Amino acid sequence: MTDSATRRATYTVIGVLILAVMLFPVYWMVNASLQPSGNTLTAGFLPLDPSFAGYRRALSEQGGNLVTSLIIATGTVVLSLAIAAPCAYALSQFRSRWVSIGLLAILISQMIPGIVIANALYTAYERIGLLNSIPGLIVANLSSAVPFAILILRSFMLSLPPSLVEAARVDGAGLFRAFVAIVLPISRNSLITAGLFSFLFSWSDFLFALTLTTKGGVRPVTLGIYQYLGTQVQNWNAVMATAVLSAIPAVVLLIAAQKYIAAGAVGGAVK
């Protein structure tokens, strides 16, 4: 075996070992979810006698929380793209010193700790009645989803040739129609990338859910798992089953959109 082949084999083994270490918690979560009732922390390495009792209990007790999280995440994606897409296009086309100031403000907004935003929103929500509501959690998640989506979309839209929009304008299309008919279809990869990350931000949110919900009427699945632990510490299969179910949408979306993510992430790097 040549030195080059040996080096590749060594790198492959190292990569597999690192991947195995990183994925082991995921495997153990699935393994524990298939164990019989009781304390599954001392379960065997393989689920030789799998039981789906944990999944049945998780669906019956946490199914509503999963639906709540799905509604919040979907609303966050739709609104974040509706806000971020025209903002990103404007920031990519305008030539003004105010654009740099606007981008700086967007970056600074990403640096603000989430607990600061959550506390400020709690005070405001208490006055306008948005506590314990799905719209309130959607608006809260937009505070992190919109700035990130603007940065992703703008980096791609900077590479769009102005002649495309100019040709549409010559044919009689207005600014809005040119944006919808020309810019958005071309920006599909970056839109999918921004939308996916907005979904993941919202789906995995715990801080806003914990701060802005004081009753059990609206409870995302992340908060459901957290409150589950207090009563199910001797029944970990249901807890782990809930965690597996909550991970499925994110895994499916990442697998389905991986090629769009790769294209959207580097789409603005080459003009």
UniProtKB/TrEMBL annotation:
Cellular localization per UniProt: Cell membrane
Membrane topology: Multi-pass membrane protein
Pfam families: BPD_transp_1
Domain ABC transmembrane type-1: 66-257
Domain of life: Bacteria
Membrane-crossing residue ranges in chain numbering: 12-30, 66-91, 98-122, 134-153, 174-201, 236-257
Annotated keywords: Cell membrane, Membrane, Transmembrane, Transmembrane helix, Transport
Coiled coil feature spans: none
InterPro entries, sorted: BP-dep_ABC_trans_perm, MetI-like, MetI-like_sf
Family: Belongs to the binding-protein-dependent transport system permease family.
Protein name as catalogued: Carbohydrate ABC transporter permease
